[in-house]
Amino acid sequence: MKKFSDAENIRSVYEAAAHSRWAHFGYLVAEVPNADYEFPQRFVSELERFNIGLIFMWKHKKGKEDWHFEEQEWESDRLNPEPEELNALLKAFFKDSGREREFKLAVGKG
User: How far apart are CA 2 and CA 46, in angstroms?
Assistant: First the structure.
């Protein structure tokens, strides 16, 4: 999820692509000024190249400040992360949490 000042930077696409190595679906959630905002074509091309979906969000006021989310016309196709990548992520995630056994029980492996 990126604030507009960061979201409009092409590096946000590359960051989302890097994180997608652990994901079955990759998305960039980006704040935009309003519902009519359009990202530059190069930005959109890079999202498509890495198969990253885009979800827009913007603030609107209805009595109080609120967020509106809208999924854009392109979505992420299902990605197939490498099992070794997922194992490395889970090891890092559970390293200091002490919850690895709880997780394994929850997925029927404990």
Answer: 16
Question: How many C-beta atoms surround the C-beta of residue 93 within 10 A?
Answer: 13
Q: What would the two tokens of residue 65 be? A: 């400040």
Question: b vs e for 8-43, b when ≥16 Cβ sit within 10 Å of the residue's Cβ?
Answer: beeebbeebbeebebbeebbbbbbbeeeeeebeeeb
Can you tell me the distance from the alpha carbon of 91 to that of 70, in angstroms, rounded to the nearest whole number? 34
Where are any strands of DSSP class E within the chain?
A: 27-31, 53-62, 64-71
Tens-digit pLDDT string for the chain (110 aa): 888 888 888 999 999 999 888 888 888 988 888 888 888 899 899 999 999 998 888 877 665 567 776 656 567 788 888 888 888 888 887 877 777 778 778 777 76
pTM listed for this prediction: 0.69
Contact 65/59 with Cβ under 8 angstroms? yes
